[in-house]
Amino acid sequence: MAVLHFTRALQRHVDAPTEAVDGATVQAALDSYFTRHPEVRGYVVDERGMIRKHVAVFVGPDPIADRDTQSDPVGPETEIHVMQALSGG
Amino acid sequence: MSVLVGTRKGLFAVDRTGTGANAGYGVVATEFLGAPVTAVLDDGRDGTTYAALDHGHFGVKLHRRDAGDAAFREVAVPEYPERPADATDVNPMSNQPVPWALQLLWTLAPGHVDQPGRLWAGTIPGGLFRSDDRGDKWELVRPLWDRPERAEWMGGGYDWGGIHSVSVDPRDPQSVLIGVSIGGVWHSDDDGATWELSTGLRNSYLPPDQAYLPGPQDPHRLDRCGADPDVVWCQHHNGVFRSTDAGRTFTEIEERPPSTFGFAVAAHPHDPATAWFVPAEADEQRIPVDGRMVVSRTRDGGESFEVLGRGLPDRHAYHLVYRHGLAVDSTGERLAMASTTGSLFVSDDAGDTWTHVTSGLPPVACVTWAD
Protein backbone atom coordinates (compact mmCIF):
# COMPACT_ATOMS: atom_id res chain seq x y z
CA MET A 1 0.00 0.00 0.00
CA ALA A 2 1.14 3.52 -0.68
CA VAL A 3 1.40 5.97 2.20
CA LEU A 4 -0.18 9.38 1.85
CA HIS A 5 1.22 12.36 3.76
CA PHE A 6 -0.21 15.88 3.91
CA THR A 7 1.64 19.12 4.55
CA ARG A 8 1.49 20.61 8.01
CA ALA A 9 0.14 23.80 6.41
CA LEU A 10 -3.04 21.91 5.55
CA GLN A 11 -3.42 20.47 9.03
CA ARG A 12 -4.17 23.98 10.31
CA HIS A 13 -7.44 23.91 8.40
CA VAL A 14 -8.54 20.27 8.32
CA ASP A 15 -7.42 17.07 10.01
CA ALA A 16 -5.53 15.00 7.41
CA PRO A 17 -3.65 12.16 9.12
CA THR A 18 -0.99 10.12 7.34
CA GLU A 19 -2.48 6.83 6.19
CA ALA A 20 -1.77 3.85 3.97
CA VAL A 21 -4.08 3.66 0.97
CA ASP A 22 -4.86 1.31 -1.91
CA GLY A 23 -4.69 2.35 -5.54
CA ALA A 24 -2.60 1.85 -8.65
CA THR A 25 -2.64 5.54 -9.57
CA VAL A 26 -2.43 8.77 -7.62
CA GLN A 27 -6.10 9.41 -8.34
CA ALA A 28 -7.10 6.01 -7.00
CA ALA A 29 -4.95 6.53 -3.92
CA LEU A 30 -6.43 9.98 -3.29
CA ASP A 31 -9.97 8.71 -3.89
CA SER A 32 -9.53 5.93 -1.40
CA TYR A 33 -8.26 8.48 1.12
CA PHE A 34 -11.12 10.91 0.41
CA THR A 35 -13.65 8.12 0.89
CA ARG A 36 -12.39 7.84 4.45
CA HIS A 37 -11.83 11.58 4.90
CA PRO A 38 -14.33 13.39 2.67
CA GLU A 39 -13.67 16.72 4.38
CA VAL A 40 -10.11 16.76 2.96
CA ARG A 41 -11.10 16.46 -0.70
CA GLY A 42 -11.97 20.12 -1.34
CA TYR A 43 -8.64 21.28 0.07
CA VAL A 44 -6.61 19.21 -2.41
CA VAL A 45 -8.69 19.13 -5.59
CA ASP A 46 -11.18 21.61 -7.07
CA GLU A 47 -14.76 20.87 -8.10
CA ARG A 48 -13.46 19.39 -11.35
CA GLY A 49 -11.24 16.93 -9.49
CA MET A 50 -8.07 18.68 -10.65
CA ILE A 51 -5.22 19.26 -8.21
CA ARG A 52 -5.56 22.82 -6.92
CA LYS A 53 -3.31 25.29 -8.66
CA HIS A 54 -1.08 25.89 -5.66
CA VAL A 55 -1.01 22.36 -4.29
CA ALA A 56 1.93 20.12 -5.21
CA VAL A 57 1.74 16.32 -5.18
CA PHE A 58 4.91 14.20 -5.16
CA VAL A 59 5.20 10.49 -5.84
CA GLY A 60 8.44 9.63 -4.15
CA PRO A 61 10.80 12.47 -5.11
CA ASP A 62 8.96 13.49 -8.28
CA PRO A 63 6.09 15.92 -8.80
CA ILE A 64 3.21 14.23 -10.57
CA ALA A 65 2.98 14.80 -14.32
CA ASP A 66 -0.81 14.58 -14.67
CA ARG A 67 -2.37 17.19 -12.39
CA ASP A 68 -5.75 16.98 -14.14
CA THR A 69 -6.55 13.28 -13.76
CA GLN A 70 -3.66 12.10 -11.59
CA SER A 71 -2.97 9.01 -13.71
CA ASP A 72 0.62 8.78 -12.44
CA PRO A 73 1.29 5.18 -11.33
CA VAL A 74 1.75 4.31 -7.69
CA GLY A 75 3.77 1.33 -6.48
CA PRO A 76 3.04 -0.71 -3.36
CA GLU A 77 5.73 1.00 -1.26
CA THR A 78 5.30 4.50 -2.64
CA GLU A 79 5.29 7.56 -0.41
CA ILE A 80 2.90 10.24 -1.72
CA HIS A 81 3.29 13.75 -0.35
CA VAL A 82 0.66 16.47 -0.73
CA MET A 83 2.47 19.77 -0.27
CA GLN A 84 1.86 23.50 -0.55
CA ALA A 85 3.39 24.78 -3.79
CA LEU A 86 5.59 27.82 -3.38
CA SER A 87 3.87 29.28 -6.44
CA GLY A 88 1.05 30.36 -4.12
CA GLY A 89 3.31 32.79 -2.28
CA MET B 1 -24.23 44.42 19.26
CA SER B 2 -20.77 43.75 17.90
CA VAL B 3 -18.85 44.31 14.69
CA LEU B 4 -17.42 41.42 12.70
CA VAL B 5 -14.37 42.36 10.65
CA GLY B 6 -13.18 40.08 7.84
CA THR B 7 -9.51 40.61 7.03
CA ARG B 8 -6.63 39.21 5.01
CA LYS B 9 -5.59 37.25 8.10
CA GLY B 10 -8.66 36.29 10.03
CA LEU B 11 -12.05 37.30 11.40
CA PHE B 12 -12.18 39.70 14.33
CA ALA B 13 -15.09 40.42 16.65
CA VAL B 14 -15.13 43.94 18.06
CA ASP B 15 -17.39 45.04 20.88
CA ARG B 16 -17.72 47.58 23.62
CA THR B 17 -15.07 47.16 26.28
CA GLY B 18 -14.31 48.90 29.56
CA THR B 19 -16.51 51.16 31.62
CA GLY B 20 -16.63 54.80 32.61
CA ALA B 21 -13.62 56.73 31.37
CA ASN B 22 -12.21 53.54 29.83
CA ALA B 23 -15.30 52.73 27.81
CA GLY B 24 -14.70 52.12 24.14
CA TYR B 25 -14.50 49.42 21.50
CA GLY B 26 -11.92 46.67 21.29
CA VAL B 27 -11.22 43.29 19.73
CA VAL B 28 -12.91 40.64 21.87
CA ALA B 29 -12.51 37.47 19.78
CA THR B 30 -10.58 36.09 16.80
CA GLU B 31 -11.32 33.28 14.37
CA PHE B 32 -9.47 31.77 11.39
CA LEU B 33 -6.22 33.57 12.23
CA GLY B 34 -3.96 33.62 9.19
CA ALA B 35 -6.72 32.87 6.68
CA PRO B 36 -8.21 35.48 4.34
CA VAL B 37 -11.88 36.16 5.17
CA THR B 38 -13.61 37.43 2.03
CA ALA B 39 -17.25 37.67 3.13
CA VAL B 40 -19.13 37.58 6.39
CA LEU B 41 -22.84 37.49 7.08
CA ASP B 42 -24.72 37.78 10.35
CA ASP B 43 -28.14 36.45 9.43
CA GLY B 44 -30.63 38.42 11.49
CA ARG B 45 -33.37 35.87 10.76
CA ASP B 46 -31.91 33.11 12.91
CA GLY B 47 -28.69 34.48 14.40
CA THR B 48 -26.40 32.32 12.27
CA THR B 49 -22.98 33.70 11.32
CA TYR B 50 -21.29 32.75 8.05
CA ALA B 51 -17.67 33.38 7.07
CA ALA B 52 -16.18 32.72 3.64
CA LEU B 53 -12.46 31.99 3.50
CA ASP B 54 -10.03 32.01 0.62
CA HIS B 55 -7.21 29.70 1.60
CA GLY B 56 -5.41 30.34 -1.67
CA HIS B 57 -3.49 27.06 -1.82
CA PHE B 58 -6.38 25.02 -0.51
CA GLY B 59 -9.34 26.77 -2.10
CA VAL B 60 -12.44 28.65 -0.99
CA LYS B 61 -14.32 27.45 2.09
CA LEU B 62 -17.49 28.45 3.92
CA HIS B 63 -17.97 28.14 7.67
CA ARG B 64 -21.19 28.49 9.68
CA ARG B 65 -21.76 29.19 13.35
CA ASP B 66 -25.22 28.58 14.72
CA ALA B 67 -26.80 31.05 17.12
CA GLY B 68 -25.49 30.45 20.62
CA ASP B 69 -22.64 28.20 19.46
CA ALA B 70 -19.04 29.06 20.20
CA ALA B 71 -17.49 27.32 17.19
CA PHE B 72 -17.82 27.51 13.43
CA ARG B 73 -18.07 24.38 11.33
CA GLU B 74 -17.34 23.96 7.66
CA VAL B 75 -20.29 23.67 5.25
CA ALA B 76 -20.44 23.35 1.47
CA VAL B 77 -19.20 25.89 -1.03
CA PRO B 78 -20.83 26.73 -4.36
CA GLU B 79 -19.65 24.46 -7.16
CA TYR B 80 -19.68 25.30 -10.83
CA PRO B 81 -20.80 22.83 -13.47
CA GLU B 82 -18.20 21.38 -15.80
CA ARG B 83 -17.17 23.76 -18.56
CA PRO B 84 -18.54 22.34 -21.81
CA ALA B 85 -15.94 21.66 -24.48
CA ASP B 86 -17.70 24.08 -26.82
CA ALA B 87 -18.00 26.93 -24.29
CA THR B 88 -16.87 30.22 -25.77
CA ASP B 89 -16.84 32.52 -22.73
CA VAL B 90 -13.53 34.32 -22.45
CA ASN B 91 -12.39 37.43 -20.61
CA PRO B 92 -12.86 40.13 -23.26
CA MET B 93 -9.68 41.89 -22.13
CA SER B 94 -7.25 39.00 -21.71
CA ASN B 95 -8.98 36.55 -24.08
CA GLN B 96 -8.43 33.81 -21.50
CA PRO B 97 -11.22 31.20 -21.12
CA VAL B 98 -13.42 31.80 -18.09
CA PRO B 99 -12.72 29.06 -15.52
CA TRP B 100 -15.93 27.32 -14.46
CA ALA B 101 -14.51 26.91 -10.98
CA LEU B 102 -14.90 28.91 -7.77
CA GLN B 103 -12.22 31.59 -7.38
CA LEU B 104 -13.72 33.79 -4.66
CA LEU B 105 -16.85 33.92 -2.52
CA TRP B 106 -17.35 37.66 -2.68
CA THR B 107 -20.67 38.27 -0.94
CA LEU B 108 -23.30 36.45 1.10
CA ALA B 109 -26.86 37.71 1.50
CA PRO B 110 -29.87 36.37 3.37
CA GLY B 111 -33.01 35.36 1.53
CA HIS B 112 -36.42 36.79 2.34
CA VAL B 113 -37.67 36.57 5.91
CA ASP B 114 -40.33 34.11 4.66
CA GLN B 115 -37.63 31.82 3.25
CA PRO B 116 -35.77 30.51 6.28
CA GLY B 117 -32.54 28.84 5.24
CA ARG B 118 -32.34 30.65 1.90
CA LEU B 119 -28.96 32.23 1.24
CA TRP B 120 -27.52 33.92 -1.81
CA ALA B 121 -23.85 33.95 -2.71
CA GLY B 122 -22.11 36.12 -5.28
CA THR B 123 -18.85 34.73 -6.59
CA ILE B 124 -15.94 35.21 -8.94
CA PRO B 125 -16.14 34.29 -11.74
CA GLY B 126 -19.62 35.78 -12.27
CA GLY B 127 -21.71 33.24 -10.36
CA LEU B 128 -24.92 33.74 -8.44
CA PHE B 129 -25.70 30.75 -6.22
CA ARG B 130 -28.52 30.02 -3.82
CA SER B 131 -28.93 27.62 -0.97
CA ASP B 132 -32.17 26.61 0.76
CA ASP B 133 -30.54 24.80 3.65
CA ARG B 134 -28.18 27.37 5.19
CA GLY B 135 -25.26 26.48 2.99
CA ASP B 136 -25.35 22.67 3.08
CA LYS B 137 -25.99 22.61 -0.67
CA TRP B 138 -25.71 25.30 -3.34
CA GLU B 139 -27.23 25.68 -6.77
CA LEU B 140 -25.93 27.89 -9.57
CA VAL B 141 -28.60 30.28 -10.86
CA ARG B 142 -28.23 28.97 -14.36
CA PRO B 143 -30.51 31.42 -16.23
CA LEU B 144 -28.16 34.27 -15.25
CA TRP B 145 -25.00 32.24 -15.90
CA ASP B 146 -26.36 31.35 -19.35
CA ARG B 147 -27.07 34.94 -20.38
CA PRO B 148 -24.97 35.73 -23.45
CA GLU B 149 -24.02 39.07 -21.89
CA ARG B 150 -21.94 37.23 -19.28
CA ALA B 151 -19.26 36.71 -21.93
CA GLU B 152 -18.81 40.51 -21.93
CA TRP B 153 -18.27 40.78 -18.17
CA MET B 154 -14.84 42.06 -17.25
CA GLY B 155 -12.88 41.87 -14.05
CA GLY B 156 -12.75 44.98 -11.92
CA GLY B 157 -9.65 44.53 -9.80
CA TYR B 158 -9.78 40.78 -10.34
CA ASP B 159 -9.13 38.68 -13.43
CA TRP B 160 -12.80 37.79 -13.85
CA GLY B 161 -16.09 39.59 -13.46
CA GLY B 162 -17.91 38.89 -10.23
CA ILE B 163 -21.09 39.48 -8.23
CA HIS B 164 -20.54 41.56 -5.10
CA SER B 165 -24.04 42.75 -4.15
CA VAL B 166 -27.24 40.72 -3.76
CA SER B 167 -30.42 42.24 -2.35
CA VAL B 168 -33.82 40.60 -1.99
CA ASP B 169 -36.82 42.95 -1.92
CA PRO B 170 -38.33 42.70 1.58
CA ARG B 171 -41.80 42.98 -0.03
CA ASP B 172 -41.31 40.11 -2.46
CA PRO B 173 -39.07 37.05 -2.05
CA GLN B 174 -39.07 36.56 -5.82
CA SER B 175 -37.49 39.95 -6.48
CA VAL B 176 -33.69 39.92 -6.48
CA LEU B 177 -31.23 42.65 -7.39
CA ILE B 178 -27.53 42.08 -8.04
CA GLY B 179 -24.46 44.16 -8.88
CA VAL B 180 -21.73 42.88 -11.20
CA SER B 181 -18.22 44.31 -11.50
CA ILE B 182 -17.97 44.81 -14.41
CA GLY B 183 -21.30 43.79 -15.90
CA GLY B 184 -24.04 46.13 -14.74
CA VAL B 185 -26.98 45.87 -12.35
CA TRP B 186 -29.46 43.05 -12.97
CA HIS B 187 -32.89 42.30 -11.51
CA SER B 188 -35.19 39.32 -11.49
CA ASP B 189 -38.84 39.22 -10.45
CA ASP B 190 -39.22 35.45 -10.59
CA ASP B 191 -36.63 34.12 -8.13
CA GLY B 192 -33.88 34.14 -10.72
CA ALA B 193 -35.65 32.44 -13.63
CA THR B 194 -35.36 35.50 -15.88
CA TRP B 195 -33.15 38.56 -15.65
CA GLU B 196 -33.09 42.10 -16.97
CA LEU B 197 -30.38 44.73 -17.00
CA SER B 198 -31.10 47.93 -15.14
CA THR B 199 -30.59 51.26 -16.90
CA GLY B 200 -29.48 54.80 -16.14
CA LEU B 201 -25.90 54.07 -15.08
CA ARG B 202 -23.16 55.92 -16.95
CA ASN B 203 -19.57 54.92 -17.49
CA SER B 204 -16.66 57.23 -18.28
CA TYR B 205 -14.14 54.51 -19.13
CA LEU B 206 -15.49 53.56 -22.56
CA PRO B 207 -15.93 55.66 -25.72
CA PRO B 208 -18.70 58.26 -25.23
CA ASP B 209 -21.26 56.48 -27.40
CA GLN B 210 -21.08 53.50 -25.04
CA ALA B 211 -21.46 55.53 -21.84
CA TYR B 212 -25.07 54.54 -21.13
CA LEU B 213 -25.00 50.93 -22.32
CA PRO B 214 -26.45 49.03 -19.37
CA GLY B 215 -24.02 46.10 -19.62
CA PRO B 216 -20.51 47.53 -19.33
CA GLN B 217 -21.20 49.34 -16.06
CA ASP B 218 -19.14 48.96 -12.92
CA PRO B 219 -21.38 49.34 -9.87
CA HIS B 220 -18.88 49.00 -7.05
CA ARG B 221 -21.59 48.39 -4.49
CA LEU B 222 -25.40 48.49 -4.14
CA ASP B 223 -27.32 48.98 -0.90
CA ARG B 224 -31.05 49.19 -0.40
CA CYS B 225 -33.19 50.99 2.18
CA GLY B 226 -34.96 48.26 4.14
CA ALA B 227 -38.00 50.36 5.05
CA ASP B 228 -38.44 51.77 1.53
CA PRO B 229 -37.11 49.02 -0.73
CA ASP B 230 -37.69 51.06 -3.87
CA VAL B 231 -34.67 53.15 -2.87
CA VAL B 232 -31.33 51.67 -3.90
CA TRP B 233 -28.00 53.50 -3.73
CA CYS B 234 -25.08 52.73 -5.99
CA GLN B 235 -21.45 53.72 -5.63
CA HIS B 236 -20.24 53.25 -9.20
CA HIS B 237 -16.70 53.30 -10.53
CA ASN B 238 -17.11 56.84 -11.82
CA GLY B 239 -20.08 58.23 -9.96
CA VAL B 240 -22.94 57.96 -7.53
CA PHE B 241 -26.45 56.85 -8.50
CA ARG B 242 -29.80 56.37 -6.82
CA SER B 243 -32.85 54.40 -7.83
CA THR B 244 -36.42 54.95 -6.64
CA ASP B 245 -37.90 51.97 -8.47
CA ALA B 246 -36.16 49.06 -6.72
CA GLY B 247 -33.10 49.26 -8.92
CA ARG B 248 -34.75 49.13 -12.34
CA THR B 249 -33.51 52.57 -13.31
CA PHE B 250 -30.87 54.79 -11.77
CA THR B 251 -30.37 58.55 -11.74
CA GLU B 252 -26.91 60.02 -11.39
CA ILE B 253 -26.02 62.23 -8.44
CA GLU B 254 -23.43 64.41 -10.10
CA GLU B 255 -21.97 66.21 -7.09
CA ARG B 256 -20.71 64.32 -4.07
CA PRO B 257 -17.96 66.13 -2.20
CA PRO B 258 -15.08 65.65 -1.90
CA SER B 259 -15.11 63.26 -4.91
CA THR B 260 -17.44 60.87 -6.68
CA PHE B 261 -15.01 57.92 -6.66
CA GLY B 262 -15.19 55.26 -3.99
CA PHE B 263 -16.24 51.71 -3.31
CA ALA B 264 -18.54 51.56 -0.30
CA VAL B 265 -22.09 52.74 0.32
CA ALA B 266 -24.44 52.14 3.24
CA ALA B 267 -28.15 52.86 2.96
CA HIS B 268 -30.01 53.97 6.07
CA PRO B 269 -32.28 51.08 7.06
CA HIS B 270 -35.29 53.32 7.78
CA ASP B 271 -34.75 56.67 6.07
CA PRO B 272 -34.72 56.44 2.26
CA ALA B 273 -33.12 59.90 1.97
CA THR B 274 -30.02 59.00 4.01
CA ALA B 275 -26.90 57.16 2.89
CA TRP B 276 -23.19 57.17 3.67
CA PHE B 277 -20.22 56.91 1.29
CA VAL B 278 -16.43 56.80 1.69
CA PRO B 279 -14.96 58.91 -1.12
CA ALA B 280 -11.47 58.41 -2.50
CA GLU B 281 -9.47 60.66 -4.77
CA ALA B 282 -9.91 58.86 -8.09
CA ASP B 283 -9.59 55.62 -9.99
CA GLU B 284 -5.89 56.21 -10.58
CA GLN B 285 -5.26 57.44 -7.01
CA ARG B 286 -7.15 55.32 -4.53
CA ILE B 287 -6.46 57.30 -1.38
CA PRO B 288 -8.50 59.87 0.58
CA VAL B 289 -8.68 63.30 -1.02
CA ASP B 290 -5.76 65.39 0.32
CA GLY B 291 -4.88 62.55 2.71
CA ARG B 292 -7.93 63.38 4.84
CA MET B 293 -10.20 60.50 5.77
CA VAL B 294 -13.88 61.44 5.53
CA VAL B 295 -17.36 60.00 5.16
CA SER B 296 -19.93 61.75 2.97
CA ARG B 297 -23.51 61.62 4.19
CA THR B 298 -26.64 62.74 2.46
CA ARG B 299 -29.93 63.18 4.30
CA ASP B 300 -31.93 64.54 1.39
CA GLY B 301 -31.74 61.82 -1.22
CA GLY B 302 -28.47 63.05 -2.70
CA GLU B 303 -29.39 66.71 -3.18
CA SER B 304 -26.60 67.66 -0.78
CA PHE B 305 -23.87 65.99 1.26
CA GLU B 306 -22.17 66.61 4.57
CA VAL B 307 -18.46 65.75 4.75
CA LEU B 308 -17.90 64.10 8.13
CA GLY B 309 -14.44 63.83 9.63
CA ARG B 310 -14.64 64.31 13.40
CA GLY B 311 -12.51 61.60 14.93
CA LEU B 312 -11.09 60.44 11.59
CA PRO B 313 -7.41 61.06 10.72
CA ASP B 314 -7.23 64.36 8.89
CA ARG B 315 -3.75 64.41 7.39
CA HIS B 316 -1.46 61.89 5.75
CA ALA B 317 -4.13 59.21 6.09
CA TYR B 318 -4.05 56.79 3.17
CA HIS B 319 -6.88 54.45 3.96
CA LEU B 320 -8.96 52.79 1.29
CA VAL B 321 -12.31 51.29 2.26
CA TYR B 322 -13.36 48.38 0.05
CA ARG B 323 -16.91 47.80 -1.18
CA HIS B 324 -17.86 45.68 1.84
CA GLY B 325 -15.89 47.80 4.30
CA LEU B 326 -18.72 50.08 5.52
CA ALA B 327 -21.79 48.92 7.43
CA VAL B 328 -24.67 50.52 9.28
CA ASP B 329 -26.53 48.73 12.05
CA SER B 330 -30.25 48.01 12.17
CA THR B 331 -31.02 51.26 14.00
CA GLY B 332 -29.26 53.50 11.49
CA GLU B 333 -27.28 55.11 14.30
CA ARG B 334 -24.11 53.04 14.41
CA LEU B 335 -21.59 52.74 11.60
CA ALA B 336 -18.46 50.65 11.24
CA MET B 337 -15.83 51.32 8.63
CA ALA B 338 -12.52 49.56 8.10
CA SER B 339 -9.67 50.01 5.67
CA THR B 340 -7.09 48.19 3.64
CA THR B 341 -4.49 49.62 5.98
CA GLY B 342 -6.05 47.81 8.93
CA SER B 343 -7.87 50.59 10.73
CA LEU B 344 -11.37 50.21 12.16
CA PHE B 345 -13.54 53.24 12.86
CA VAL B 346 -16.91 53.18 14.63
CA SER B 347 -19.55 55.87 15.00
CA ASP B 348 -22.42 55.80 17.50
CA ASP B 349 -24.09 58.93 16.15
CA ALA B 350 -24.73 58.22 12.48
CA GLY B 351 -21.30 59.43 11.41
CA ASP B 352 -21.18 62.79 13.21
CA THR B 353 -18.21 61.60 15.28
CA TRP B 354 -15.95 58.58 14.95
CA THR B 355 -13.82 56.46 17.26
CA HIS B 356 -10.57 55.06 15.85
CA VAL B 357 -10.81 51.60 17.41
CA THR B 358 -7.55 50.13 16.12
CA SER B 359 -4.99 50.55 13.39
CA GLY B 360 -3.46 47.15 13.94
CA LEU B 361 -5.69 44.85 11.92
CA PRO B 362 -4.68 43.09 8.71
CA PRO B 363 -6.10 44.61 5.49
CA VAL B 364 -9.89 44.58 5.79
CA ALA B 365 -12.22 43.12 3.17
CA CYS B 366 -15.56 43.38 4.96
CA VAL B 367 -17.38 44.52 8.09
CA THR B 368 -20.84 43.77 9.39
CA TRP B 369 -22.86 44.42 12.52
CA ALA B 370 -23.99 41.40 14.49
CA ASP B 371 -27.20 41.96 16.41
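Residues 2-88 of chain A form a domain with the Ubiquitin-like (UB roll) fold (CATH 3.10.20.30).
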